[in-house]
Amino acid sequence: MSLMFRSLLRLISLLINDPTEVPIETGEENEETVFTADAVLFEYLDGGWKERGKGEVKVNVSSPGRGKARLVMRARGNYRLILNASLYSDMKLTNMDKRGVTFACMNSATDEKKGLSTFALKFKDGSFVESFTAAVAAHKGKVASVLKTPENSPKASDD
After folding, report:
1. Residue 137: what are its φ and ψ, rounded to 5°?
2. pTM, rounded to two decimals
3. Cα angle vertex 13, ends 9, 19, to 5°?
4. Rounded to the nearest 5 degrees, what angle is found at the Cα of 85, between the Cα atoms of 27 and 133?
5. What percent of the chain stands above pLDDT 90?
6. Most CB contacts within 10 A, which of 16, 19, 38, 136?
7. Least confident span in 4-18, 41-55, 142-156
């Protein structure tokens, strides 16, 4: 029996006999979560809203001294990253119905489209909209940004 094959058998044996959890690094280890809630994420594309996934959305603030914050959302079930966007000082949140909020950001979780896109989060309850808006407002960056509203963004209504 070859050395490589024996090593493989030993590894399999260890995994079967000692099923301890292997630590998974998500990149969120050095961040503090200041808001979390279940939501549905939509993206505005080609004149309509396209669902991107359901899961837990978080507002994470990096370790003290760095002052950076971001939105992170993972799909329920497989924990696939569906939203990873830095907060910026000019970020505007617009209420949508009673349980939703829209915003423009650069989502680095997908390779599909580079640049600014318009997203919407729909929560189970309207109280989450207020909490989410407050958390984002409290942790937006202090540096002025050059991001602008995407051309394909839906127009805000005067309701």
Report:
1. -60, -35
2. 0.74
3. 140
4. 110
5. 51
6. 136
7. 142-156
Between 2 and 76, where is the model more confident?
Answer: 76
What length is written for the chain? 159
pLDDT confidence bin for 127, thresholds 50/70/90:
very high
Q: Which residue has the tokens 């909209």?
A: 129
Q: Give CA–CA dist 125/45, Å, rounded.
A: 25
Instruction: Please state, in angstroms and rounded to a whole number, the distance separating the CA atoms of residues 71 and 111.
Output: 17
3-state secondary structure the chain: CCHHHHHHHHHHHHHHHCCCCCCCCCCCCCEEEEEEEEEEEEEEECCEEEEEEEEEEEEEEECCCCCCEEEEEEECCCCCEEEEEECCCCCCCEEECCCEEEEEECCCCCCCCCCCEEEEEEECCHHHHHHHHHHHHHHCCCCCCCCCCCCCCCCCCCC
- Three-state SS for 119-139 is EEEEECCHHHHHHHHHHHHHH
